[in-house]
Amino acid sequence: MRYAIIIEKAESNFAAHVPDLPGCVAIGKTLEETQQRVREVIESHIRGLRQDGMPIPIPSGQVDYVEVHDIRPPGEMHVLWTKEQEYYETVQILECGGTINMSAQRKPSSRLDNFLDEIRKKMKKRLQIRFAARRVFDRPPDSSNIGEKEWDLIFEEIKNVLDKKKNARKFIWQKSLQARKGGIVITHGTDTLQICSFVIGLKLSLHELTLPVIFTASHSPPDQDGSDAVENIKKSLFLAMEKAKATEEETLPPGVYVLIGEELHLASRISKLYTKPNSEGKYFFSFPAPVAFVSSEGEYSFHLQFDRDYLRRVQGVAPEELRNFVAAVPLSTAPPIFENGNLLMVLGADSEVQVGWDTAYMKRRTKMSKQDCRKLA
What we know:
Layout: E1 6-9, E2 14-17, E3 25-28, H1 31-51, H2 83-89, E4 91-95, H3 112-127, E5 131-135, H4 148-174, E6 184-187, H5 193-204, E7 212-216, H6 229-240, E8 255-260, E9 263-266, E10 270-272, E11 284-286, E12 292-298, E13 301-306, H7 308-314, H8 319-328, E14 343-347, E15 353-357, H9 359-363, H10 370-376
Parallel strand pairs: 4-5, 4-6, 6-7, 7-8
Antiparallel strand pairs: 1-2, 2-3, 8-9, 9-12, 10-11, 12-13, 14-15
Helix pairs in contact: 2-4, 4-5
């Protein structure tokens, strides 16, 4: 006799049951072990029924598969949906304290988490972007109190996300599935944003980074009139999510960035000049210029425009070349390491690395005033 069995995968083992023989279950560490054990359980169960003079159930269960189409909302990419696909597509927000995570009214109900609930609904409906948010610290600190210990903790959180995304990507590839790539957004205070994003970028330059990591902040709490907190988060989520049918110029390359207002900066090149926005609405600057601009075309409609010279260069540097470059350059020259296109990298015959400025990048000009330039210097 042939009985249909159902085998399910648990976290660390397999479990099987027999629909025609209630109570017949088996557990094994491997698929083969589970099959053998459920066979033994069936045989033992039938022997017991015969000894008791009970009728033997006739096999009636059948196992078959059906192909399912269009089970996801319009505009999303794939047919099947697994927890690995869901995690790979979900943008992870890591909350690290600072003004962006505070409340001007000093009420828990006015903090960032409550704004995220509304953003989550509209992002999913209008842009098919999912995200999950969690705090890095039990009690979010003021960014002026963030130092080496906190940097290590932030980095470990990022590394954990990257490892889980890597495992999910491997599963998706093995199963011939599809999924869009969701990156990481880090909300942070402005006081130490410059040094923290730089340190994280430097640490990540020694690892395989396959998705964008975007820091963002605000000059005032999200519940205060005129705050840029919510808008910066929405734009960061937009940037962190791979577009379903995007051109190369609409997809953010892997890297560490800072999004403030309409400007996207390389993490290694930003400086905070003002505590509040100046007459042009800016309080962070980068030298010599931002690498991209993100404009709003509606409440939940955005457009990414790259500096074409930067995009051309960043796509021309292989990850292996970048890793070799990082390993060979002394720490004192670290700031430009992970900018991917801001330097010319030349490997000599003796494997020594020589560094030269990319003249096309240096020739570009920002719209900074002389006063701003003096502050930046």
